[in-house]
Specification:
Blueprint lengths: L3 H8 L2 E6 L9 E11 L2 H8 L17 E12 L8 E4 L1
Antiparallel strand pairs: 1-2, 2-3, 3-4
Length: 91
Amino acid sequence: IHSAKVKEIKDNPAAYVLLGYNDTTNRSFVEMEATIEIVTEQEVIDWLWETQDKSFFSSKEDPELCVLRVIPQSIKLMNDKSLETPIKIDL
């Protein structure tokens, strides 16, 4: 697996994942602080291959195919107008 992103994750697996974020709206979204793992086990790839859309890889045996496992450490509800401060859940 030889991409700049995989190298970046290996060098620093800490990440923030934003779900539902759109910089053109001011709506609520979820921010997840997480650690990312690179998964190359064929069993995991086979299982996920059955449900993904196959847009980026022509075969599940592609040597550049890997899975990113996101391991959340905290989850925060952001930008919710009904809350004075974000709600944070530490895991």
